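queue> pop job 88
queue> type: inverse folding (structure -> sequence)
queue> payload:
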């Protein structure tokens, strides 16, 4: 193989740049030219490609976001879009594509593979919902960002005897909410996996007040069955608790920032392993982390299953919230 392309796709995740750098430098080590596809499947359809030299990926390891940019593209989901993508790949002599992104992006990779293009996937999404890997690029950084905010919010909550409702990202997955709840000392966590009624949230805050706490934190996943604003209104109208309620929606803050040591290492290892897998002829697989090892998992599995949060984490959250 002489020319391999790489793209970052879906929501950006801190560590994507470290993965790009690792892919490029591993390719160069094997005398393979690496082409960057700008703005994911949109750039693929538009033929927006650039040669990635070793210097092009210098000084990006510590940067959040992605130097290749990312996008979401509906046209690529259609047969006509996919045919055009295939033409672009062939016209440019690209022999394989490495896709760094979330589960949607990896479904896109599967579509390329079905048209005969060798593909390797690299899991990157702060949501931690990708099957076949313990964790994905960006999760650790996002979790640290959330914890930083949560600690700050607790300072002000304690000073005013308030309860804070904090909404975190995760799409349909409650991982970030549950983990930040455990690690940030939340009184209650609301997830799509184990939803609780607004009344139970109010009760948990009441209990915290009665137990003499000077603050209370409720962490809520964006995928919970009701909106954060609805819950905040409900809690404010619910007269039995002693705390004044404030709502903070963390939003895209969670996606930015310099990747943690863990994410840099994970992204670097995944990027190297992805290029090496491509060069030894593997196809239609994602590289994942299992224990401390890099593994390959068929994309057919990755795209049909969803990573679930183990029951034991919910138990832990419950025990520690007393
Ligand atoms: P993520 O990769 O973070 O889960 P999305 O679900 O938005 O993000 O997917 C990113 C992009 O991947 C989509 O905008 C689309 O271009 C492509 N994609 C998603 N699902 C499919 C699919 N079933 N077939 C082809 N392409 C897809
Ligand atoms: O998949 C990553 C993610 O940040 C989700 O947590 C969130 O639901 C979504 O992307 C937000 O997407 P956008 O950046 O398009 O608003």
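queue> result:
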């Amino acid at each position: 193989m002489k020319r391999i392309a790489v793209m970052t796709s879906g929501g950006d995740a801190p560590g994507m740049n470290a993965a790009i750098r690792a892919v490029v430098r591993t390719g160069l080590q094997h005398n393979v030219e690496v082409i960057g596809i700008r703005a994911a499947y949109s750039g693929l359809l538009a033929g927006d490609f650039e040669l990635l030299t070793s210097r092009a990926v210098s000084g990006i390891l510590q940067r959040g976001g992605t130097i290749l940019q990312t996008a979401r593209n509906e046209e690529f989901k259609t047969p006509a879009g996919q045919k055009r993508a295939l033409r672009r790949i062939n016209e440019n002599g690209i022999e394989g594509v490495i896709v760094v992104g979330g589960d949607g992006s990896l479904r896109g990779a599967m579509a390329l593979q079905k048209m005969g293009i060798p593909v390797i996937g690299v899991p990157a999404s702060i949501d931690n919902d990708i099957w076949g890997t313990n964790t994905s690029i960006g999760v650790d950084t996002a979790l640290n960002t959330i914890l930083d905010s949560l600690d700050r919010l607790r300072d002000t909550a304690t000073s005013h005897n308030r309860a804070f409702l904090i909404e975190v990202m995760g799409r349909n997955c409650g991982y970030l909410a549950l983990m930040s709840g455990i690690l940030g000392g939340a009184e209650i966590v609301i997830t799509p996996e184990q939803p609780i009624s607004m009344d139970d949230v109010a009760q948990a805050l009441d209990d915290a007040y009665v137990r003499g706490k000077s603050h209370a934190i409720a962490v809520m996943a964006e995928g919970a069955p009701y909106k954060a604003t609805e819950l905040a209104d409900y809690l404010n109208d619910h007269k039995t608790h002693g705390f004044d309620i404030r709502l903070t929606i963390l939003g895209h803050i969670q996606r930015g920032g310099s990747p943690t040591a863990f994410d840099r290492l994970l992204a670097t290892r995944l990027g190297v392993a992805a290029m090496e897998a491509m060069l030894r002829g593997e196809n239609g697989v994602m590289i994942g982390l299992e224990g401390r090892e890099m593994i390959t998992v068929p994309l057919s599995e990755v795209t049909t299953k969803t990573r679930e949060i183990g029951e034991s984490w919910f138990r832990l959250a419950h025990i520690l919230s007393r």
